[in-house]
Design a protein that fits this description.
This protein starts with 7 loop residues before the first helix and ends in a 12-residue tail after the last helix. A hairpin with a 4-residue loop joins β1 (about 160) and β2. It contains 8 helices and 2 strands, in the order αααααααββα. A two-stranded antiparallel sheet has the order 1-2. By secondary structure, the protein is mainly α.
Length: about 220
């Protein structure tokens, strides 16, 4: 889908609809087989986090609170990276999930076949090598700027009133009127792309699981929410 042709509200509706689809994935996992694996638990937790973060994001954007909404893109990217980590870590998926549930930090794990730790830098670098995922590095860095108090926050609280006279307007209040609409639009595009990729990661696991148990993956299209 080309998100650039949509309005900001249409982008938010897309996010809301994706959350409904993600919730339906719980039923789809059960449809493949009622037997739960450890990675299923990890995945469900990741998807639950995604829909709640996404709901907060759309609510905050609609409430003109971009400053609080923007860092949530970074949180969903965090979920995406950790789902991808389960593919490239030194462990199989279920062992990976078991280690995480036991308290082991993903950043202490190794990239399969190497001695490199799965730091965020390595994760977004590796996932950006995947076809159609080249954008992750740039979005990670851009979204990260809204987590830390940096220039993005400074410029979101002021507006140049007169460039020649060097006059600026500043404000403390419950609004994001100084944030350009283009930035809000871009953020909504980023969030959509990130959620799309989280869904894709979940689908990869579901496909793997269906193959192992001999389930026809096409039947999942008939699973109703």
């Amino acid at each position: 889908m080309s998100y650039v042709t949509l309005t900001k509200e249409q982008l938010l509706i897309e996010i809301d609809n994706k959350s409904k689809a993600i919730i339906n994935m719980g039923q789809q996992l059960t449809a493949i087989t009622p037997k739960m694996e450890i990675f299923d638990i990890f995945l469900i937790a990741a998807l639950n986090r995604t829909v709640n973060i996404s709901k907060a994001y759309t609510s905050l954007i609609r409430d003109n609170n971009f400053i609080a909404a923007a860092p949530l893109v970074r949180i969903n990217i965090d979920t995406l990276l950790r789902l991808y980590a389960s593919i490239i870590s030194e462990y199989d998926r279920n062992t990976f999930a078991s280690k995480v549930m036991g308290g082991e930090l993903i950043k202490k794990m190794k990239l399969r076949g190497t001695k490199q730790n799965l730091s965020d830098f390595l994760l977004y670098t590796e996932i950006s090598k995947v076809e159609n995922m080249e954008w992750v590095t740039d979005i990670y860095k851009a979204a990260n700027s809204f987590v830390h108090l940096e220039k993005s926050h400074i410029f979101s609280s002021l507006k140049v009133a007169d460039d020649k006279e060097r006059i600026i307007n500043m404000s403390i209040g419950f609004h994001d009127s100084f944030v350009p609409e283009s930035e809000k639009f871009g953020s909504a595009v980023w969030m959509n792309k990130t959620i799309d990729s989280i869904i894709q990661q979940a689908q990869i696991w579901m496909y793997e699981k269906a193959q192992r148990v001999g389930f026809d993956i096409e039947k999942l299209n008939k699973t109703k929410s």
